[in-house]
Amino acid sequence: MASLYGSETLPEPADVREWEDADWYGFAGLRWTVLHAPGHTPGSVLLHASDGHTSRLFSGDVLFAGAIGRTDLPGGSMSEMVASLRETVLTLPYDLAVLPGHGPKTSIGRECATNPYLHLSFLEQNS
């Protein structure tokens, strides 16, 4: 990392806050709701942004078009990912646009129809 960013030690910001599930914050004219979704990492979250008319889900490395985030890295957990998919992702509206951390945008409905990780057989097998 030092070769990329230098060896300088950066101080921690003075105002650091931990996000809790269902916390919400208003900025940029949007209401941002935190949805805890562990699996990729213990602290993985989805951010649901809404202006009251249009909503978007920033899924980070939890949900991608046709895939999910890796769970084989330190801190990752397939059983937690399956629980997050079942209890959080699958409860969201089908028409909700999803903007993943990598790859093309998608929607909850498209992922329910095409993403093998959201199919019942996968969820039951990996519970």
Task: Describe the protein in words.
There is one protein chain. The chain is α+β, with helices and mostly antiparallel strands. Helix content is 21%, strand content 26%. The chain has one domain (18-125): Metallo-beta-lactamase, Chain A (4-Layer Sandwich), CATH 3.60.15.10. The protein has 4 helices and 8 strands, in the order αββββββαββαα. It has a 6-stranded mixed sheet. A hairpin with a 2-residue loop joins strand 5 (63-64) and strand 6 (67-68). The radius of gyration is 16 Å and the shape is globular. The mean pLDDT is 92.
Short description:
With 127 residues, this protein is α+β, with helices and mostly antiparallel strands. Helices cover 21% and strands 26% of the residues. The longest helix has 10 residues, at 78-87.
Tell me what the CATH architecture is. 4-Layer Sandwich
Series of secondary-structure elements, N-terminal to C-terminal: HEEEEEEHEEHH
Report helical residue fraction.
10-25%
Report strand order across the widest sheet. Answer: 1-2-3-4-7-8
SSE-based structural type = alpha+beta
Gap from first CA to last CA: 36 Å
Mean pLDDT: 92
Overall body shape: globular
Please tally the helical runs, counting DSSP H or I stretches of 4 or more residues.
Answer: 4
**What would the CATH topology be?**
Metallo-beta-lactamase, Chain A
CATH class category name: Alpha Beta
| Proportion of residues in β-strands | 25-35%
Number of strands: 8
Domain unit count: 1
CATH superfamily: Ribonuclease Z/Hydroxyacylglutathione hydrolase-like
Q: Over all CA atoms, what is the radius of gyration? A: 16 Å
Question: How many strands, which pairing sense, and closed or not: the largest β-sheet?
Answer: 6 strands, mixed
